[in-house]
Structure formats: C-alpha cells, structure tokens
Amino acid sequence: MAAHAPTGRPNQLFRNLNAKIASIPMMLVALVIFLGGTIWTVFYSFTNSRLLPRLNFVGLDQYERLWASSRWIISIQNLAIYGILSLIFSLVIGFMLAALMDQKIRFENTFRTIFLYPFALSFIVTGLVWQWMLNPEFGVQSVIRSLGWTSFAFDPLYNPDIVIYGILIAALWQGTGLVMCLMLAGLRGIDEDIWKAARVDGIPMWKTYLLIIIPMMRPVFITTLVIIASGIVKVYDLVVAQTSGGPGNASEVPAKYVYDYMFQAQNLGQGFAASTMMLLTVAIIVVPWAYLEFGGRKRG
Amino acid sequence: MNIRAMAAALAATVTLPLGAAFATDLEVTHWWTSGGEAAAVGELAKAFNATGNKWVDGAIAGSGSTARPIMISRITGGDPMGATQFNHGRQAEELVQEGLMRDLTAVAEKGKWKDVIKPASLLDSCTIDGKIYCAPINIHSWQWLWLSNEAFKKAGVDVPKNWNDLVAAAPALKKAGIQPLALGGQAWQANGLFDTLTISLGGKELYEKVYVKKDAEAAGGPDMAKIFAAAAQARDMAKGSNVQDWNQATNMVLTGKAGGQIMGDWAQGEFQIAGKKAGTDYTCLPGLGLNEYLTTGGDAFYFPLLKDEEKSKAQDILAAAIVDPKTQVAFNLKKGSLPIRSDVDLAAANDCMKKGLEILGKGNIIKSVDQLVSADTQKQKEDLMSEFFANASITPEAAQKRFADLIGSAD
Lengths: 300, 411
Hints:
The complex is a heterodimer of chains A (300) and B (411). Chain A is mainly α. Chain A has 13 helices and no strands. Chain A starts with 16 loop residues before the first helix and ends with a helix. The model of chain A has no long low-confidence stretch (mean pLDDT 87). Chain B has 21 helices and 13 strands. In chain B, the strands form 4 sheets. Chain B has a 5-stranded mixed sheet with strand order 2-1-3-12-6, with helices on both faces. In chain B, strand 1 (25-30), helix 2 (35-49) and strand 2 (54-59) form a beta-alpha-beta unit. Chain A binds chain B through residues 50-52, 69-71, 135-137, 158, 160, 244-250, 259-261, 263-267, 270, and chain B through 65, 68-69, 72-73, 76, 91, 93-95, 98, 185-187, 242, 244, 374-376, 378-380, 383, 386-391, 402.
C-alpha cells in the first residue's frame, strides 16, 4: 500500500511511507530517551546536584574532583587493561576456535554447543561461578594443591596487582563462544572455490587464512568488534559479582564509579560527570573510526 | 509509677484505633537479613501485627549500601513503601527537604518523644525545621572489640584487656595459625574500623576536631598520624582474612579462627544466636578497652508521604509502636543494640549490653560520623580506607595526606 505522489517526480518524503511510519516509535525513543537523556546528564554534570537534581551551577568542579580521585584513575586504568586484552584475546581465541571447527571435524555441533554455552549465562552468574573457581580455599588452587603440588598459588581475586586479570578470565570464558560463532559464520560464507584456488597455487593453509580469508571477512570482524567493544565499556555486573571492586579499589571500573556516586554517595553531579567522561571516551574512539569506515565508503 | 503511666498512654495510642481499624497492609523496607537481625525484625513485625495491621516485610539483602539506593529510587520514583529504615543522620535529609516524608510531630508529641528519647541527639537527627520526621528504633555503636577466648587459649596468651594487648598478642596468634584480626572486604567495614580507632585511641577531642569542625590541619596533624600508624598495624593483622560480609568475619571470631574483630554491637546478635556466653566464650571491649566512648548512631524509621489515608494512619501506629517500651525491649534484646529510651527495663540484657548501657548512662556519648558528615564524604572516606586496607604499599603518611584533603573539603 505505498502512497505514491500522483504525478511528476515521486516525493522523497512519501517514499517507503510504511517503513517510515514503522520506524517512528524507534526514532522517538532514540531521540527522546537516548539523546535527550544524554543531554540532560551532561547538562546536570555542571551542577552540584546531590540526591536530587538541582540547578546550581558550579562549572567544572565535578570534573576537577573526578580527575583528582585516585579511584577514578584506577577505574580508567582497569578499563584500559581489561578492554585491550579482552579485545585481542577474544578475537584471537574466537577465530582460532572457529578455524579449528571449520576443518570438517566430527561432532562439530556438540563442540559448538559446548563453546557457546557460557554465553547463555548472565554476567552475574559467570561472576559468581568464577568467584568460587578462583577462591584459593575452594577453587583451582586447592584442587591443584590436593593433587600434590602444595606450593601452588593462584588467587588472582585476592591480589590487588592481578585482580583485573581474574575478571578478564571470566569475561573471556563467557564471551569467546559468541565470537567463535560469528567467525564460523563468516568462514562458512567464504566461497569453497577460493580454498580450491589457493590449494592449486600451493599456498600454505596459514597463509591462506592470514592473507586471503581474514581480509575477506572484514564485515564480520567489524560486527564482532562493535559487539565486544560495547560489552567492554559497560562492564559492571561481572565486577560486582566477582569482587565488588575489591580488594580495596583494585578492580573498580568506571561504570561502577558512576553507580556508586549517584546512588550510594547521593552525589548525582559527580556521577553525571563520570558518565559524561565515559561517553566522551567512547566518542573519541568511535567517531573518527566510524567516519573513516562508513563515511569513506559512501564516497568511494 | 511514671513509667507505667507512660506505657499506658503509649499503649492507648497503639490500641485506640484498633476498634475502628481494619487490617491495613504496610510494606516496610529494611536491610536486616543476618540471623540476629532477622529475629529482631520478627519482634517488630509482631508488635505491629498486634495492633491489627499487617506488616509486609520488604527485606533487601546485601547491607545498607545496596539497600539505600533501592529505597531512595522507590521514594523519588513515585512508588513509596509504607516505612523504611535509614541510619540516624543525614541519609534521608534531602528527601525530607523535598517534602517526600511524612511529618510525625503529632505522634511524637502524643508519645512525649522529646522527654523519653535519650540521648536527645537522636531526635535532633530526626528533626528538620522543628518538625520530626523519623522514629528512632535503636542505638548502635561501632566502638567494640570482640575477642574469641578460645583463640587466645590456643595461642597460649591471656585474653587482651585492650587494643594494645591485642596488637602485642598478634605474633603469638599468628604462630598458632590464627588470624589476629578479622576484617570483611566491604568498604564500610574498613571505614568503621578507622573511625573506631580515631575515637578509642585518639579520644573525643581529636574526633570532634576532625569530624565536627572538619579541621583539615588536625586531620593532617601528629595526633591523627598515630591513628594512621595504628590503622597500618590493623592492616597487617587483618591480612589474609579473605571474607566479604561482616557476619562472615564475626563467624571467624565465633569459631576461634580469628582472635578478634572490631565491629559494631550488632555483632552481638550473632554470638547470641550461636548460644555463646559473654565472658566465657567471648569477650567484648567497648571503646577497645581504652577510651570508653560510644557513638550514638543506629537506625530510624522514616515514613514516606502517602496519599492513602488508611495507610497514613497505619504509619502513625507503626511509629508509635517502634518507640513503645515493650517493643524497645523485645527488639533490642534480639538485635544486640541499645534502646533509645532510658526508662525501660533490660534485666534480661547480657554483660556486653549492660556495659554499653552503663556507658550510655554515664553520658559518654558522641555523635556518629553518619550524623556529622554527608553521604558523599562518607563514600570518599570509604574509598580511601578500603584502598588503604587492601593495599599494603600505601604508606600511612600518604593516606593521611589524602585524608586531610578530604576533611578539608568535607560537608
């Protein structure tokens, strides 16, 4: 039931009218809730709002306090370590698993299910499970000690220096299955003839993967990257379940800082300032990249 | 006598509406979920149900820092409960200022709260612009050292008489494979421990300089440096207690796995439920055995403003029931806290509670940090203390410098 303009050039506004009407609710949500909420938050981050939002402007005070706070600095460092490592490892491990799975092995379905299964668990459950696994008195350490290696020590969650890696382990366990599946789908999308041609030319398998297959899988990699990256920035529940930020402040992350200051410290202004900084960080990384990625293609 | 007349008057306020009232459900939110706490809440619910209304329990697990955001969001978000717990102090200050809380002045006048509630600072914390907005239920003090007699017997040393003795006994305890000091990983526990050291080791004057006057110079001065040195000692003694919740840490003392714990008098309830006896199984030292001052923090109930008239009436009844002498006795015995009025008979109280009552009677009381500084300042302090206690590489001097900055900008 397309409503065409009766004569002359078709009116751009009324083209695909159904689709446009259907997308109005989503556009409203995006504009009012996402954009509106964001602007509101940034606006109030310049006030000294406490428990309730108040319009009492204090300039950049909240930001000065934020960057002077050692907890915030630790949070940012943790996010950087966690983010970079989880990006690299989940892509590498995910791709390796997918490549192995693609060798026409037996019981592929079973393996796929096993690897993807952790993804069905929420971060809270994952965090609790790994909290027990990494607990020195019940988990991995005690199992290995009971096997005879009595000096074995592995208690990342109780050591401030390496606690973030304990969280990383849990995140990778949960997330790589999904990356594997996405990669596998990408690999299956590669034409069989390419493999045949490579074999005829006598190119070794690793070289085929590295120089032919991976460049062809670029769209899959981009999708995966976006999914992993958004998971990294918002990491919160995993930390709460596993360590609740401890020991001390050693595993704090920015999202937790925002929550704690908004609700526990009853200081909305400070929480808003922190969340604005999170948004800014994401924007600094994403905007130039998106410009190159999508803006460039249109012209080219 | 006077007490009896008062009790009768109070009972009348409780029972009078009974004839007319038909059971009104009132949801009450709180964060009392450990064994001793739950038993105490049961007493409160019983007292309220006896008035012909119905207590709908809204317990939120995971300590106050988890529960408070939920409660506040419900009140500000337009889904208020019938009544809710907060700590004495400034946690609900802004909610009252915004007019979201019910004014209890009429109930308070009827029950003569101004005369019966001791110390008066409790009611002051409930009073904003001359109106009363909360019903205090108990007094909790932080300044207690709980010791396991069994652990010291095993280590072959006498049970300490004060904090310094415990520090001296620490090597012997460690040798016997016992954790000298149990400390849970949650930030508020390290923070409370530090405040306790400030009062008990530094004395009232220092405490008031730092938290009442918010004097940054005193906070960075030599007296406070001693407290930070003691905190560093406590940090060494607590190293290796891999527990999170306070009651897990108390349990280490209870089972003799740890020598002692600095924790508020709510730990008492855990010993009570485990059937342990003060003096023979465990020892309690108020003021860490040094400066016997107690802070009068604790809990109070606030009543959000509701549109439903029946519920509003039930709120008044609950407020009166909370301050009622009978409820006070039943509740506080189970909870291990002290009653908010001095005219009740606590013959059934155990030795530790009696020690507390005695100190209270002497008037050796100070306002708690919760009553003195904002939630924001408390949170910043918690961040500092939890970092300090978890990370041995932070020197006491460095921590003190940050503490002084924090006090300088505190409100």
